[in-house]
Specification:
single chain, 358 residues, alpha+beta, 2 domains, 4-stranded antiparallel sheet, 25% strand
Length: 358
């Protein structure tokens, strides 16, 4: 007995008829058929005129035009060298390079050319920061002061062509430009690599959507808000909006699980110390905090000197064993009436992690 074959596409007779007519008339198919006819499972996607997932594969040779330092010995002369090595250019291995040219062709050549092996041998590309052009208008002219005189510089041909290629068709041009380059960067990056993309209010919504598609939403790490200027009185000029004083830096990893991350700290400000460590004894500052933590599953309700934690909380300073209190970790405890406090001296925390407001 033969099995009934499952239809290749889940289409009604009316939909089949409409599709046939559209194809015969040479018209574009409605967007919904992309998910029905093709194996494309993406539910959210940024679409623009001219979108193409093919990337440049050109490999061009690099030519050294100038070395800006002198060769150096491979090993330092002394037992220890300074953080910034000033002994000149190394003779073997990877050296930093300033490459002039179209960055799309450069990225393609780095990805598929001879330098790729050198990059991998040096540990791989693990950090990228880019500051792509914003939609600020095509006027690249400027006034330059030299020796007390002011000269007016008009945009050169390369600047005009670059702007035309980037913004000639509006947002479509920009997204197409950055989309292809970001794919090349992702393919060039080490699995532990991260990328920071600097943009402003004009393009940050598109940039976030493009990065989500290329790197994956799971590999989004942070959105940094960079305050680049102080308030400049737009309201006094008649603007009916809040002053725009920040740019956005989008932080993505090639792999959220494998990315390199070193937490950065900054010292507490005087205001933070005054506010958080607001108690003083014998010239030493401290604060009182409740030593509780979120309660996990199971029977973990412990008490200490008759004090029990609130509902859905446990005493975070204790370790339980066989349903009872085993030992207290190193902590200074203070009981005031029916409340238990942990004393946190100033010396225990001299700095705080950097947040996403910079």
């Amino acid at each position: 007995m033969s099995k009934t074959s499952k239809p290749a596409y889940d289409l009604s007779d009316a939909e089949k008829r409409d599709l046939t007519q559209l194809i015969q008339q040479g018209k574009a198919l409605p967007e919904k058929y992309r998910f029905i006819l093709f194996e494309d499972k993406r539910e959210v996607e940024l679409v623009w005129n001219g979108k193409n997932r093919e990337v440049c594969t050109t490999v061009l040779p690099f030519q050294s035009l100038e070395h800006v330092d002198e060769p150096r010995q491979e090993a330092p002369e002394g037992p220890q060298i300074d953080l910034f090595d000033t002994r000149g250019r190394q003779i073997k291995g990877w050296t930093n390079k300033l490459i002039w040219g179209d960055n799309k062709l450069i990225l393609s050549s780095l990805k598929s050319g001879a330098l790729r092996r050198q990059i991998e041998d040096a540990g791989g590309l693990k950090l990228i920061y880019i500051d792509p052009p914003f939609d600020v208008g095509a006027d690249f002219s400027m006034d330059i002061e030299i020796g007390g005189e002011t000269f007016h510089k008009e945009p050169n041909l390369l600047e005009q062509i670059a702007y035309r290629d980037t913004w000639g068709r509006g947002a479509d041009s920009f997204i197409s430009m950055i989309y292809e380059r970001l794919i090349l960067m992702r393919d060039l990056m080490h699995s532990e690599g991260s990328i920071y993309v600097h943009c402003d209010w004009r393009v940050n919504a598109w940039m976030r959507a493009v990065l989500n598609e290329i790197f994956g939403t799971d590999n989004f790490v942070n959105q940094l808000c960079w305050r680049r200027t102080t308030a400049h009185g737009d309201a006094k000029q008649g603007a009916q909006h809040f002053d725009t004083v920040d740019d956005t830096i989008l932080f993505f990893a090639k792999s959220e699980e494998l990315k390199i991350w070193n937490t950065q700290y900054v010292p507490f400000s005087d205001e933070q110390i005054e506010e958080q460590y607001n108690k003083t004894e014998n010239g030493r500052r401290y604060r009182l905090v409740t030593p509780t933590a979120a309660k996990p599953g199971g029977d973990t309700l412990y008490e200490w000197k008759g004090v029990t934690p609130p509902k859905r909380k446990i005493l975070g300073i204790f370790e339980g064993e066989d349903g009872g209190v085993r030992s207290a970790r190193k902590a200074l405890l203070l009981q005031y009436r029916s409340t238990l406090y942990q004393i946190l001296p100033r010396r225990a925390s001299r700095s705080c992690g950097i947040d996403n407001l910079v």
